[in-house]
């Protein structure tokens, strides 16, 4: 190279910390979007089962889709699913207790199938009274946690999610947004917290699995570099 000539600077590369933060932010966004659409899909399917059985009744003017579901139900459930699915692995990391029980997609899919079955039972199976149905669904929901989770954090978050979701539902029904047929727990059915508990465990498992997949991808990229 002749004197006086300077080498043109190449493209600046981000440092490892900035690159890592950017990658984690993008992966977090992707996981949130995936969880949102999973929640929307499950809301459409499960709410359709409830409406067909006349468990929930919406005013005629809010029936706005071919799925016979109020327009706000799928986005609300999708947002809640994203929050829950991202919260579970975050709590695991905060407590220093990574969840390693049955960490494969086949187990997650079985968990989803059991959750749909529990919801289907609440709409299709006839019991003598709501107390028998509530006790049966409570046992099934705890069985779902024991089979696919077994973590203290998962159980605690499931109970918290069930409490908050039931409280919000009570307020919605109280304000006339929609209603339940034959309510026996203030304005809702007594088995509703069981459904919310099982749903929280299910979305938590999906979120944990997505987070584990993300960690594997990042580890492989770091190893290649």
UniProtKB/TrEMBL annotation:
Membrane topology: Multi-pass membrane protein
Transmembrane segments: 28-49, 69-88, 131-148, 155-174, 186-206
One Gene Ontology term from the biological process aspect of the record: cholesterol biosynthetic process
Keyword DNA repair: no
Keywords: Cholesterol metabolism, Endoplasmic reticulum, Lipid metabolism, Lipid-binding, Membrane, Steroid metabolism, Sterol metabolism, Thioester bond, Transmembrane, Transmembrane helix
Keyword Cell division: no
Complex formation: Interacts with SCAP; interaction is direct and only takes place in the presence of sterols; it prevents interaction between SCAP and the coat protein complex II (COPII). Associates with the SCAP-SREBP complex (composed of SCAP and SREBF1/SREBP1 or SREBF2/SREBP2); association is mediated via its interaction with SCAP and only takes place in the presence of sterols. Interacts with RNF139. Interacts with RNF145.
Stated role: Mediates feedback control of cholesterol synthesis.
Protein name: Insulin-induced gene protein
């Amino acid at each position: 190279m002749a004197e006086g000539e300077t080498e043109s600077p190449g493209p600046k590369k981000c440092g490892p910390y900035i690159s890592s933060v950017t990658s984690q932010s993008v992966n977090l966004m992707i996981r949130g979007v995936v969880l949102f659409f999973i929640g929307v899909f499950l809301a459409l399917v499960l709410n359709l089962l409830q409406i067909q059985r006349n468990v929930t009744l919406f005013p005629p003017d809010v029936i706005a889709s071919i799925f016979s579901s109020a327009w706000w139900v799928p986005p609300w459930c999708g947002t809640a699913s994203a929050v829950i699915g991202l919260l579970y692995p975050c709590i695991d990391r905060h407590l220093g207790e990574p969840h390693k029980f049955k960490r494969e997609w086949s187990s997650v899919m079985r968990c989803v199938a059991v959750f749909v079955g529990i919801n289907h039972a609440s709409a299709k199976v006839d019991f003598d009274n709501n107390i028998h149905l509530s006790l049966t669904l409570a046992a099934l929901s705890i069985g779902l946690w024991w089979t696919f989770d077994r973590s203290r954090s998962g159980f605690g978050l499931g109970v918290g999610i069930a409490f908050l979701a039931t409280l919000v539902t009570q307020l919605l029904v109280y304000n006339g947004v929609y209603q339940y047929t034959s309510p026996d727990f203030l304005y809702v059915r007594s088995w509703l917290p069981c459904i919310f508990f099982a749903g929280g465990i299910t979305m938590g498992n999906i979120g944990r699995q997505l987070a584990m997949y993300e960690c594997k991808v990042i580890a492989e990229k770091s190893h290649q570099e």
